[in-house]
Amino acid sequence: MKRITRAVAVVASLALAVTACNANDKSAPSGGGTAVAEQGGTLQILTTSKEISFDPAKSQNLGTSSIHLILRGLTSWKTAPGKAAELVPDLATDTGQVSDGGKTWTYKLKPGLKYADGSPIVAADIKYGIERSFAPELSGGLGYHKSLLVGGDKYTGPYKGGSLASVETPDDTTIVFKLNKPFGDWPWIVSMPAFSPVPKKADTDPAHYGEKPVASGPYQVKSYAPGSKLELERNPSWDKATDPARTGLPDSIVFTMGLQADVVNQRLIADSGDDKFAATTGTSVPAALIPTVSGNPAVKARVATSPSGALQYLAMNNKRPALSNPAVRKAIQYAVDKQAVQVAEGGPEFGGEIATTLITPGIEGYSKYDQYEAPPAGDPEKAKSMLAAAGVSNLSLVLAVDTDQPTGSAVAQAIQQGLKRAGITVTLKPLANEPWTELVTGAKGDYDLTVSSWQADFPSALGNIQPLFATSEIGNGGYNMSRYSNPAVDTAINAATAEQDRARAAGMWGALDKQIMADAPLVPLIYARNAFLHGSKVQNFYLPAYPPYPNTLIMGLSK
């Protein structure tokens, strides 16, 4: 789970069609009209990244991103337009067999799985890959499993710490995980990069393993020149029949690295030569290029937008005297002008939809509701009367602003002006990202308000609720910026986390959404949209509600 930064603002003047044949479906495949993806060709990926590492121990990549072209996990993600991400068995035969009240998970590997060199993929390789992720020298990857596996809190990896006893491999096709508490989302956890197989004999130079890892997916690294180019070629041992998540359509994939964001988008707009077969998976359309794009229908048809995205919200520090009264926080729900925030982020088409919930669309447990039913532009008169009823006057608050966000200041000013109409004085405290982060996640919490965005690392409402509202996440680097603490909510979070039945868990998370919003710890602002361009020959390119990024695993090319 991570805080999401808005790389660029996308202005509202661009009324794009996501596809030439279906302009109203924001999650539809785009770019080819009736063209279909075919086997073969070279997919070009244009990226601003100067370095690319495929080391699973160090990766924070989502389940549909490039690392999973090379590496498979026990489970994987399958996406389709207009549908929630689906968990599917990948190397494993199913999504896991659970026992011991939710604390033991067992997986069996599919038969005949092989690496690129033809050698068999065995359970011990997955165990070793997981153990590598605990090594301090390979830090930075997603680490949910580190706090869940028995003994994980003290384990230091295979180079110095030996073996991790809570990951068992009784034979070559069986792997068993022993958890320290019931955790219903474990099947999603084992889709993360750290659960990719790494043969111990291949890990001779851990610092550079990510440059050419042993391939289990449809592609392997052919060549890598940092800052310049990365080439992937087919893995001859990959068997499509065993893989429900990847299409393996292109013959090769080439990453052109170290580009400026405007260069990426200019090249995709021009759509010439090899760039007809190009896409970007992380560089949004910048505001400066909107007039160019909006004036060209052929380019409009090659922009895909997500129907939803990260939750942007106004955190109210519940520990501050002025905001400790729920009645004051509820009044601010009506004082905030969400419409002005939406405009500052680019308008409804590409800035995002007005948000009223904590769980975001595309995540199980989301249901559309509005606890306060405030008008999008706010209701300052109602806010004033609520403050008066609470005996509050001349309310003055400090809003900490992350000025490294391109739209950070504009959004802060929109909030400042909305609250001013309700008689609330807001002083802006501009900070660069690093000191802002220290302030809002540190122990002191010397601020009243701040704006942030949040997106889960996997499709579970756990990622929307626990990091932002559990008491354990206040200070010490935690992201409970509202500093909200409710013992009943903590108990309910623990219960939902332990629930193994996904439908029942989704209902529990949905109830928590409403329970927390009844206390008004923060103001949901918008569900931020993403927008990405691609070349005219790129197919299967769409952005679901979650994850709001293109699925690299299924892209293909048309002739």
Report on the structure:
The chain contains 16 helices and 22 strands. With 559 residues, it is of the alpha+beta class. It has helices at 67-70, 123-132, 144-148, 186-189, 261-270, 290-294, 297-300, 326-335, 338-344, 347-350, 380-389, 408-421, 433-441, 462-469, 487-498, 502-517; strands at 2-3, 42-46, 75-78, 86-89, 97-99, 104-108, 167-171, 174-178, 219-225, 229-234, 252-256, 278-279, 303-305, 311-316, 352-354, 396-402, 425-431, 449-455, 522-528, 531-533, 538-539, 556-557. Helix 8 (326-335) runs antiparallel to helix 11, helix 9 (338-344) runs antiparallel to helix 12 (408-421) and helix 15 packs antiparallel against helix 16. The relative contact order is 0.19. Helices cover 24% and strands 18% of the residues. Strands 1, 14, 15, 16, 17, 18 and 19 form a seven-stranded mixed beta sheet that branches.
